[in-house]
Amino acid sequence: xxxxESQNLLKNNPENSGLFYLLLGISLVALIATFLVANSxxxxxxxxxxFVLIIFAYGTLFWIYSxxxxxxxxxxxxxxxxxxxxxxxxxxxxxxxxxxxEEASQFFGASLKPNDMFRLVTSRINEMIPFAACVLLLADExxxxxxxxxxxxxxxxLLINSEFPSSKGLSGKAFISGRCQIDKQNLLNKEIFPxxxxxxxxxAIAAPLHRGSDVFGVFELFGNEQxxxxxxxxxxxxxxxERFAPLVVSSMAFEKNLSNALTDSLTNLPNERxxxxxxxxxxxESQRYRDERPxxxxxxxxxxxxxxxxxxxxxxxxxxxFFASEVIKNQLRRMDFLARSLNDEFLTVLPTATENxxxxxxxxxxxxxxxxxxxxxxxxxIIVQLNYGSASFWKDGETPNELLKVAHIRKxxxxxxxxxxxxxxxx
Length: 427
What we know:
The protein is of the alpha+beta class. The protein is 52% helix and 16% strand. Helix 11 packs across helix 12 (314-331) and helix 12 crosses helix 13. It is elongated, with a radius of gyration of 33 Å.
């Protein structure tokens, strides 16, 4: 049997409990004051004024208590509900859909990117608990803030990337308590979201996502009506959350592994594998438009890098690789793609750029590097300079391998022409 609503509210919210007992105490004081004033010898007008003030004070406190009660109203699933709950809330159709979520966690969780996982799961959840909008929030490393990393439905573009303390809003309450919660008037969320983000969203329900004994995130649904969600929604969302959490954990791990597979650990740049994926895509675009969309590839390495390693050690060599990668990256356009290949070589895709544009970029890079020597120690500086070779789509080749082959040849030719330009090492 469900506990009385007032009993649950007082038990789970000490703040409301304090208001309740304060209201009860003031009610008794008001009754005593009314009796004393009524039987006193003071003027009738003063008596009437005192009665009005008592009524006003009592009404104000009652309004505060009622508002607080609505804001904190939470329906908790009854413990030990057992078979009765299953028969009441989970039909055969719902059980089948929950089973589908569980199977998705087992078979697809380790091979789905988070955004694909979110779209798949939310479409299934919408069939069980209709909603107007939904968000997935994850806690930061210190668990002090929650951030919306995915959103769908109404106002999704206004909700995405919102970040707030993990103790605020309905999601904050679900995160701190570790239990599903309902806000039938969306009052708690009005404290953290701007009005336009909640436009048309009148209620909310949130489920904590558990990893073992810890809560790592929250899944929250929004409804268009104040009665969009009830006790059945609460119990169902709890069951969904248990199946949704492993999917989130698996897909986040999959994305991290995929990112590591395509990222160079030293420079944090994409690696050669990622370079080929991007280059193939850019070549496909240039093939569609031919001369209207030029494409240039650059191969770059550091002059006399072997000597740098021999004279200053591999640790300094690694630092110079990172230094050079940052300088190159900062001088490229947003559409350009920079990756690290083997040893000291970098590969660059320059969409819509001609060979002349590539040459201008390299001249600018070498000027910046010459004016900003790398400080090895207070006494030693290294002026880093770059070798490069370029190749243009259609003119020099039509495949990634053809373009890179030409770019490598031209880089070697440039080295032989400029072998007098060496890195300067102070004594």
